Structures are given as C-alpha cells and as structure tokens.
C-alpha cells in the first residue's frame, strides 16, 4: 500500500526542512568555528573554549528544561499551542540573525546571543514535536516522524552549501568578503531560510487535541502537573521511556552539538570540517527515512537499539581518534543513526501519550531531553579539562547509552500500552 501524506503531515514535516538549517549551520558547523576562532584570537585555549561552549549548552538547556513542562501544560488549552510555538520561533529567528552583528572578537557576547537563539529553536521544537499527535495517527507516526528528519537533512544541505560556497569563495578572494563577514552571511541565510519555509507550518498545522481553557490557566497548569506526578504510576510505561530517553539522548545530543569542536581540537581545518559535516547530512537523510521503514517492519524498540549500538561504538572509536580519516569514519557512523534515533524516539513517545495532554507530556519529553543535555556537555567539559584530552570526554558518554539501553528494555510496546486517563 502506497504511503500518502496528508496536507497537514506534509506541512508539519516541512518545518524540519526549515529549522534544520539552524541545526547544521548554527549548532554544528559555522557558528562553532566562528566562535572558536573568536575565542582563539582572544587568547582562550582550545580546550577551554570547547569547555565554555559545553557550559553554554548546559545553561540554555537548563533554562528550557525549567520552562518546558509549565508552558507545555498551558499549551494544552485550546489555541495556545500555536501561540507558544510562534513566540519561540520569533526568538530563535531573531537571535540567529543578530549573531551576524556581534563583533568577531567578542566571544562572550557570541555565546550570550547563541543562548537566546538556541532557546528559540529548541523551545519551538517542543511545540512542533507535540503537533505530531495533531497531524498524524499512531499507525503512521514512525514514518511521518522519520520523514520529517529525512526532509530536514535534505533541506539543510541547500543553505549549508550556499554558506560553504560563500565562505570558501571569500577565502580564495573570488568575492569581496572577509571570511568573518562570509560567516555572518551564513547566519543571515539561516534565519531567512528558517522563516521562509516555516510558512506551511503556520498555514496548515493546527491544534486538534486540546483541553478547554481555564479561567486561571497558570494556576491550573501547576495543579495538573502536580496531579500527573501524584499519579505517575498510571503512566509507568511512559515515564520508563522518558528515563531511558534521558540517558541515551544525552549522548546523541552532546556528540551532535559539540562535534565541530572535537574536530577543531584534533587540528582538522575548518574547510575539511565543513565538507565532512555536509557529507554527514547527505548520509543522514536516507538513513532517517530507512529507520522509519525498518521500525514499521521489525519494531520501533528494536531499531532504537540499533541506533544505541551504533553510538556506543562511536564512543569507543572516538577514544583513539587522532586523524582526519578517523573523524570521517566517526562522522559517517553518526550520520547513519542521528536522525533515525531521534525520529523514532519522537514517534514512540507520541504513541504512548494521551493526545489531549500531548503538550504537557511533550513538555516532560523535552525536559528529560534537555536536562540530559546539561549532563553530557558538562561531563565532556569537565573530563576534557581534567585530562587535557577531548577524546576522553567523548568516551565517557558510553555509560549513558548503556544505561539508556537497559532501561528501554522494560518499556512496553505502544500498541499494548493504554495509559489511564486523568480524572
């Protein structure tokens, strides 16, 4: 049977096309190199600048982790989900554009503005993820979620190629731009791409499942959260999954967000890093879609274990990594699984949650993910500074994948899991 997307599913998935430009250009590639150059010029050592980037990631994820459950609970009310999504979208796109106007020698201000950009991007994704329950059904979520990641990887390569071309042409003197201004142009391209291709999301995706508004929404949101915690045994399977996700997604997010810093510390040139990251995106697109298809055939949990196994090997391999060739191998391995493990985690969770409370529970989904992202970068930063070796920090992440895999074993199959509804 041919898999046909509805207009709502297409529009939802297309937001990944829009937002993934931020993920590759700001989170992974151009901004980290821009920041590392600024820090180096200011006399900050390579190890310390990597650690400061890790601490910054920890700070903004901690802020979002505190906000996500409350905002998510309020967003379950009729008409609120799109409003919160829009607010974070404006913050993210605005701060991303603002990066282009920060003095190149002010590494600290770069990290501050990056914090706001990351808050906007990850905050918008809290509500974007929860819209999955509004646009699709439990039977279609694996394929739709994986397709979103696949489209995202494909779409992100276009502004990435444009940005790389501008940077390389500026380096060779073909265009009258300094390398610094070429990087700034990449930040503006990212913001423009993100805004332009988010239009279908705003036009066609709407909140279908909701709770009727309350006269005191904030107070009621706290009461609903407290009630959920009191009756947490009713959602045992759901929270077991969140606990497993807390550990393994920590390792995934840390490796993705700090991969450029790792490569830079190995002495890999910026141009080589950009090319490696581009190829990684190309590989990640079909593999994300493949993960969705394999999950439908063999089971979501089984394919999640495949992703966890790949990342466990990545941690082991990273310990002895000392060349460009090693980094190529590592990047290709990450490319095969980074989109798939995230897509299947999102759809697995979406099938476990009660749809009318999807924002509240996706708030928990993101708080577990974000609090985990505090631990990973801190672990890498502290280990790197204590040992003077970034590779040791990457290797230390292996324990997170092992623990996450063990807990995942006890999570029930969504098709046989029926959470007890709220009273």
What is the C-level CATH assignment?
Mainly Alpha
* Secondary-structure class: mainly alpha
State the CATH superfamily name: MFS general substrate transporter like domains
In total, how many beta strands?
0
- The average pLDDT score comes to 82
- The CATH architecture comes to Up-down Bundle
Largest sheet: none
Number of domains: 1
In the predicted model, the low-confidence regions spanning at least 5 consecutive residues are none
Shape: globular
Beta-strand content estimate = under 5%
Cα-based radius of gyration, to the nearest Å: 21 Å
Looking at the structure, the CATH topology is Growth Hormone, Chain: A
One letter per element, helices H and strands E, the order comes to HHHHHHHHHHHHHHHHH
Distance between the termini: 40 Å
Helix content: over 70%
The helix tally amounts to: 17
Domain Major facilitator superfamily (MFS) profile: 237-423
Protein name: MFS transporter, UMF1 family
Keywords: Membrane, Transmembrane, Transmembrane helix, Transport
Membrane topology: Multi-pass membrane protein
Structure, described:
This protein starts with 6 loop residues before the first helix and ends in a 15-residue tail after the last helix. It has one domain: Growth Hormone, Chain: A (Up-down Bundle). It is mainly alpha-helical and 423 residues long. Helices cover 79% and strands 0% of the residues.
Search tags:
17 helices; Atg22-like; mainly alpha; Growth Hormone, Chain: A; ATG22/LtaA_families; membrane; 79% helix; single chain; 0% strand; 423 residues; MFS_trans_sf
């Amino acid at each position: 049977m041919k898999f046909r997307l509805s207009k709502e599913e297409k529009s939802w998935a297309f937001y990944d096309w829009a937002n993934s430009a931020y993920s590759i250009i700001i989170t992974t590639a151009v901004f980290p190199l821009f920041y590392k150059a600024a820090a180096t010029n200011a006399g900050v050592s390579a190890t310390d600048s990597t650690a400061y980037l890790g601490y910054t990631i920890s700070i903004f994820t901690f802020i979002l982790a505190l906000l996500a459950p409350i905002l998510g609970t309020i967003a379950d009310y009729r008409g609120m989900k799109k409003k919160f999504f829009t607010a974070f979208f404006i913050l993210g796109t605005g701060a991303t554009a603002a990066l282009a106007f920060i003095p190149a020698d002010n590494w600290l201000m770069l990290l501050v503005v990056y914090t706001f950009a990351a808050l906007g991007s990850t905050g918008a994704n809290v509500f974007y993820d929860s819209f999955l329950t509004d646009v699709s059904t439990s039977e279609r979520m694996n394929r739709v979620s994986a397709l979103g990641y696949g489209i995202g990887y494909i779409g992100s390569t276009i502004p990435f190629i444009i940005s790389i071309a501008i940077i390389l042409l500026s380096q060779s003197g073909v265009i009258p731009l300094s390398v610094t201004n070429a990087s700034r142009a990449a930040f503006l391209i990212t913001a423009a791409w993100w805004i332009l291709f988010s239009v279908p999301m705003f036009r066609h995706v709407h909140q279908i499942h909701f709770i009727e508004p309350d006269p005191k929404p904030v107070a009621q949101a706290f009461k609903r959260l407290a009630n959920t915690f009191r009756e947490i045994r009713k959602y045992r399977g759901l929270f077991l999954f969140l606990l497993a996700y807390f550990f393994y997604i920590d390792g995934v997010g840390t490796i993705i967000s700090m991969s450029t810093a790792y490569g830079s510390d190995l002495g890999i040139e910026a141009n080589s890093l950009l090319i490696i990251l581009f190829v990684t995106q190309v590989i990640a697109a079909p593999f994300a879609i493949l993960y969705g298809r394999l999950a439908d055939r063999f089971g979501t949990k089984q394919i999640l274990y495949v992703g966890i196994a790949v990342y466990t090997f990545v941690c082991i391999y990273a310990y002895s990594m000392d060349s460009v060739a090693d980094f190529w191998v590592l990047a290709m391995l990450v490319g095969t699984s980074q989109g798939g493990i995230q897509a299947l985690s999102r759809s697995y969770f979406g099938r476990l949650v009660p749809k009318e409370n999807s924002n509240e529970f996706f708030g928990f989904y993101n708080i577990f993910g974000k609090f985990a992202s505090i631990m990973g970068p801190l672990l890498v930063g502290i280990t790197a500074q204590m040992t003077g070796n970034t590779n040791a920090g990457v290797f230390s992440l292996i324990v997170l994948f092992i623990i996450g895999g063990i807990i995942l074993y006890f999570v029930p199959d969504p098709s046989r899991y029926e959470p007890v509804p709220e009273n």
